[in-house]
Amino acid sequence: MSEIQIEFIPAISLISAQEWNQLMVTSSDEGASVNPFVRHEYLAALESSGCVCAKTGWTPMHLTVLQGEKRLAVMPLYEKTHSYGEYVFDWAWAEAYERNSIDYYPKLLCAIPFTPVTGPRVGMAKSLTQSEAALVWSKITEHFSEMLQKSGYSSWHALFLTKPECDMFSKQNALSRVGTQFHWMNKGYQSFEDYLAAMNSRKRKDIRKERYRVAQHGLTMRFVDGGEVTDEQWLAFTHCYQMTYAKRSGHYGYLNLSFFKSLAQNMPQQIKLLLVETNEGDSGADYEDKQGQRIIASALYFCSDTHLYGRYWGALETIEGLHFEVCYYQGIEYCIAQGLQTFDAGAQGEHKVPRGFEPVAIYSNHDIAHPAFRDAIEHFTHQERTQISCYMKEMSQSLPFKSSD
User: How sure is the predictor about 66, in pLDDT bands with cuts at 50, 70 and 90?
Assistant: First the structure.
């Protein structure tokens, strides 16, 4: 294999969407829609909207591997000056550095900003042999190691990788870390009632009661395809998202209307917007659709040929159980109707377990330049891995399904 080079791209727009997307479709994905969050269109929307830029602490420097004029691999990469919007938490590491008067930032981060979803992080040319691909992995990690030594970065991190990718980086001496999320798995259910029938009677009753309480409010809920969402509906969704974020976190969230509308324009086929509407009450400053119904809540979903992803939601009114209905039960019904295999409804949340979401492992890799801190962090990750394993077993035992005995 002739000499290969590594270069960095300061904007995703400097590489074509076709070339990026072709590389980011792994062999296991062929014939299926690309994971929506690694698509060029998604990353470009983050940058063009100003959500991702140096000012927000996410400086793009996407890695690309070249052999002459041929691009062999790409990786979404950012220089970070904080740890917000990552969802694999290293705040304690940063605080330990600060206590010892050592800079933790800037750091290098391979991730999809604000998106805790597992997917490919290194896209490689399908023509590479196994040995050639291994050489590319080696070159990437070698280059990162050189950057840690020479460019003032404390560390590099790759978040929410696939298990094979995590294993590849681990072979190159990167530390590995394991966490957990809760996903819903479609086991051939024909309807929501069919799904409930797999549960024990108490949990089944609880969910029916929870959904009944929401149904008493007379709300209309419907999914709108990304290409059919109107400007007014996007405005309503963004308002719901920002108001809910402000109540919870004191700021209006990381994303804006420009980002959402860019997605609708450039990748509508992988977007579903759930609208929650009512005929009751005065419109006031709220948003109405063409039928005069008032939009009081909304949720943005993404889909591939196999997965549904629940990402952002918001509500303008407080209704008991509405979050569970909008973010969980509507998504489950959609998966059953469309034959999707997995529903990823977002990060964390033990409250998903009694509703039938199962613990799954998530993976990340980390390389730390400072020898003493690397040793300490490696020790921590070993302890954490044991704790996560026990936690996942405990959560699995708490699932609401009938015993298979």
Answer: very high
pTM: 0.94
Q: What does the DSSP assignment read for 22-64?
A: HHHS-GGGTTS---GGGSHHHHHHHHHTTSSSGGGTEEE-EEE
Cα–Cα distance, 110 to 93 (Å, whole number): 18
Q: 64 has which bridge partners?
A: 7, 74
Residues 364-405: tens digit of each pLDDT: 999 999 999 999 999 999 999 999 999 999 999 999 998 865
State yes or no: pLDDT of 288 exceeds 70: no
Res 285 pLDDT > 60:
no
Which pLDDT value is given to residue 291? 59
Structural element, H or E, at residue 302: strand 294-303
Question: Can you list the domains of the chain with their CATH numbers?
Answer: 5-181+360-397 (3.40.630.30), 187-340 (3.40.630.30)
* Neighbour-count burial for 1-28, b at 16+ CB within 10 Å, e otherwise: eeebebeebeebeebebeebbbbbbbee
What string of DSSP letters covers 167-195?
HHHHHTT-EEEEEEEEEEE--S-SSHHHH
Among residues 142, 117, 55, 105, the alpha carbon closest in space to that of 312 is found at: 117
Residue with tokens 């740890």: 83
Average pLDDT, the chain: 94
Per the CB < 8 A criterion, the answer to whether 12 and 62 are in contact is: yes
Q: How buried is residue 252: exposed, middle or buried, by Cβ count under 10 Å (0-12/13-18/19+)?
A: middle
Answer yes or no: is pLDDT of 130 > 80. yes
pLDDT at 28: 44
State the Cα–Cα distance between residues 43 and 263, nearest whole angstrom.
Answer: 10
Q: What DSSP element (H or E) covers 377?
A: helix 371-397
Dist. CA 395–CA 182, nearest whole Å: 9
- Residue 238 tokens read as 């963004």
Q: Which structure tokens are listed for 140?
A: 């990437």
pLDDT digits (tens, 9 = 90+) for 190-206: 999 999 999 999 999 99
φ, ψ at 342 (rounded to 5°): -135, 140
**Quick one: pLDDT at residue 33?**
61
Measured CA to CA, the distance from residue 367 to residue 378 in angstroms comes to 10
